[in-house]
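> call design_seq(struct)
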């Protein structure tokens, strides 16, 4: 956002990312929303988390897919010309040519997924810590930062050609680099829409995966909730995606028909019913923390309004307005409670 000042900050109360991949933060020193300066060079950086004390940012540091040039060969049809698609290739590619062996050679590109690489940025010092994950494809992985900033969770899928991939969840100790396997399943496919979220006490995490529903003949999101000490699968919520934790025992979910809060200890669900005063429904949940749920008015509004409510959709409070929609939002511990 060109209208915002650009500067470094020592601690952020709030971190958001816009569609152009700019990272905006609310500076804890004065509360001002600024464009974060000092990000190390990274291709397509994606904001994945903010530590509870607001001093560490987690970002992806690789593209999900890269394209490498190659020389392609196509055998020409046995039928005589014209060959419209061959003529199109010859017209757009100056290196294309028809060979004596009745083939067409031309420039092409092949896509591959690079290995996952993450950046843990220390805001007070501006120093990045790079986390490398060989053989973990960036385009089939998710990550999330623990509230204390000491552990990164990664969920990743093998590149099997089967209907279902092997999905694994690992925990990585930031200080030592030690990686501990937490959970594996071969009954899910893969979704990379939502970063992994941690409960505020660090005892649980939630990740959004996909599975195939025979009845509807379609893919659907499902949320798994894991115990971070034992790897036990605590809850599974089908037809849902997760958006953060309003409390240590509750995770906020977007369901097929409505938004709701799931108590991961009891399995009880509470619907979130919210409408603006002008009766326009919410444009969607962005995040949840401190007993509050952040929503936006909807897409294609200028400016976009963001507010937060309690876990039932009541006690509506304004948060901020923006000329752009945000694709990700994370808050430091207690920030939404102070804003209530």
């Amino acid at each position: 956002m060109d209208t915002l000042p650009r500067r470094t900050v020592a601690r952020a109360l709030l971190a958001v990312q816009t569609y152009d991949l700019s990272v905006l933060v609310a500076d804890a020193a004065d509360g001002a929303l600024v464009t974060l300066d000092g990000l190390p060079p990274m291709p397509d950086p994606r904001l994945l988390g903010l530590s509870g004390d607001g001093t560490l940012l987690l970002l992806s540091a690789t593209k999900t897919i890269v394209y490498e040039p190659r020389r392609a060969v196509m055998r020409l049809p046995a039928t005589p010309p014209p060959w419209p698609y061959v003529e199109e290739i010859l017209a757009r590619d100056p290196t294309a040519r028809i060979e004596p062996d009745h083939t067409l050679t031309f420039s092409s590109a092949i896509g591959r997924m690079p290995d996952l690489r993450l950046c843990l940025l220390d805001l007070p010092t501006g120093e990045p810590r790079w986390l490398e994950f060989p053989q973990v494809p960036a385009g089939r992985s998710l990550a999330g930062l623990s509230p204390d900033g000491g552990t990164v969770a990664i969920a990743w899928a093998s590149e099997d050609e089967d209907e279902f991939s092997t999905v694994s969840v690992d925990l990585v100790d930031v200080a030592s680099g030690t990686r501990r396997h937490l959970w594996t399943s071969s009954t899910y496919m893969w979704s990379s829409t939502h970063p992994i979220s941690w409960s505020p006490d660090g005892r649980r995490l939630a990740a959004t995966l996909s599975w195939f529903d025979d009845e509807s003949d379609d893919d659907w999101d499902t949320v798994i909730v894991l115990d971070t000490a034992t790897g036990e699968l605590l809850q599974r919520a089908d037809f849902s995606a997760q958006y953060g934790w309003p409390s240590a025992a509750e995770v906020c979910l977007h369901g097929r028909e409505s938004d709701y809060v799931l108590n991961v200890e009891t399995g009880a669900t509470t619907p979130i019913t919210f409408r603006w005063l002008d009766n326009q429904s919410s444009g969607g949940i962005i995040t949840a923390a401190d007993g509050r749920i952040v929503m936006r008015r909807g897409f294609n509004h200028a400016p976009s309004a963001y507010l937060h409510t309690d876990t039932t959709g009541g006690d509506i409070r304004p948060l901020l307005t923006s000329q752009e929609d945000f694709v990700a939002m994370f808050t430091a511990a207690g920030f939404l409670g102070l804003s209530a």
